[in-house]
Design goal:
The chain has 5 helices and 4 strands.
């Protein structure tokens, strides 16, 4: 009699195991399916975020480059009036602040750092930012080199010599900004030659 009840218990265990195995497999499959779906959703979101950031960079980079040129006296600096430089600042401010959720905090801080070395803000109530550069340098005179008619009133748009930012400091902040923006889209910086 003991052997028969032992046999029945063994059969019951086999039946329980046989019955729970498909349930366990189904639960495991559901968990894996959900995890894969979540991973797929994260990947899709990351891809869309990178696409949005690239779209924003397509808009920002030409204006950033113009500011770099103007404040370092290279490239197209002779073609830009001080009012055009301020307009680029306003466009960039609007782009970065209106789209701040799409940029990393590092990129936003780098933009603010760059803007602070090229513009003096909060000069006076109702007054536009001033340009942290001079009218003349070893590179020439902005008034004389300007490709169009220079407006003498533009002289007030520049800071005093004491508040001027060196072209080297501008370039350094620009490079930090573009590196942060590149990192936001997964671009790796190009190593500079040690020579």
């Amino acid at each position: 009699m003991l052997a028969a009840s032992h046999w029945n218990s063994l059969e019951i265990v086999k039946l329980v195991v046989a019955g729970t195995t498909p349930v366990a497999v189904a639960v495991l499959a559901a968990v894996l399916s959900r995890a894969l779906k979540q991973a797929e959703n994260r990947q899709w979101f990351s891809q869309k975020l990178v696409e949005k950031r690239i779209e924003l960079l397509d808009t920002a980079l030409p204006d950033l480059n113009d500011l770099l040129c103007y404040f370092t006296w290279v490239g197209n600096w002779k073609e830009l009036s001080p009012t055009e430089v301020l307009e680029r600042k306003r466009r960039l401010d609007r782009l970065f602040y209106a789209n701040s959720p799409f940029f990393s905090t590092t990129a936003l801080a780098a933009y603010e750092g760059f803007a602070s070395v090229v513009f003096k803000t909060f000069v006076a109530p109702g007054t536009s930012a001033q340009l942290r550069t001079t009218l003349t340098s070893r590179h020439g005179s902005r008034a004389q080199a300007f490709a169009h008619q220079w407006d003498p009133a533009w002289a007030s748009m520049f800071t005093d010599k004491a508040e001027e930012t060196s072209p080297e400091a501008v370039k350094e902040r620009y490079e930090a900004l573009t590196a942060a923006l590149g990192a936001d889209v997964g671009a790796h910086p190009i190593a500079k030659d040690a020579s």
